[in-house]
Amino acid sequence: AYEMIKFSVNLHRGCFGGCSFCTISAHQGKFVSSRSERSVLDEVRAITVMPGFKGYLSDLGGPSANMYRMGGRNEALCRRCSRPSCLFPAPCRNLRNDHRPLIELYRRVDRVPGIKKSFIGSGIRYDLFEKDDWEYLREVIRRHVSGRLKVAPEHTEDGVLKLMRKPSFALFRTLNERFGRICREEGLNYQLIPYFISSHPGCTERDMRRLSDETRRLHFRLEQVQDLTPTPMTLSSVMFYTGENPYTGEKVYVARSQEEKRRQKSYFFEWQKDRRKK
Ligand code: SF4
Fold this sequence. Notes:
It is a single chain. The protein is an alpha/beta fold. It is built from twelve helices and eleven strands. The protein has two domains: about 1-120, 2-Layer Sandwich (Transcription Regulator spoIIAA), CATH 3.30.750; about 145-278, Transcription Regulator spoIIAA (2-Layer Sandwich), CATH 3.30.750. It has a three-stranded parallel beta sheet with strand order 9-10-11. Helix 9 (about 205-215) links the parallel strand 10 and strand 11. Iron/sulfur cluster (SF4) binds next to helix 4.
């Protein structure tokens, strides 16, 4: 693990996304703590003299790539707030989601002598982009991507996404379209790599079939996928073990057997059958 992260820099801790299956907010907190620019730049300078460093930082990130210096405008309101997510079901109006401090930090890191390129390897939260503000995405595509940009829509079906506390898939379609447009404008042949989860509580085989159809229609060949492993302290685990949404008391379908889980996961790879038919 150390080999993987030794040339990467953590910019912040915590996450206010509140995804149902994730423990980050349970063990790092919902409020983001960001490092000072000075502290980050000192670490970057220290990395430049490490043995084996060739000028490439593998990641400038955190639990999510783009929550640096973000949080509530009115902190008193946040202290009284009981929302598990600042982004779901819709971004909070009190949330400061300005990407400029992060863009400025990327640029300062890239000016450090000895740095040839810094990559963004952490997942990007695209539900943090303002409706018409794609400057951050353009900056990342232009300067910080090795050819593949990872994002996590996690599913295509809104019923499942709601239980995951993730935004509608319509937002991913917009991102995909915008990503393609920026790449064309910049003359770059890059790929968007979406992550998906099968067997999340509420996800049926029909949902997986629809996921398969939708992602093939968008010409994705899925590879970054996982079958849910219920993790302690998460809402997903509560639903997995009880078969109920604890907020509403509604019954939730859960694929628990190995066979059900295997079948759900197999839908990720339907695109391989299309290829064989050709
Ligand atoms: S008030 Fe808004 S920004 Fe603050 S913690 Fe609650 S949801 Fe997040």
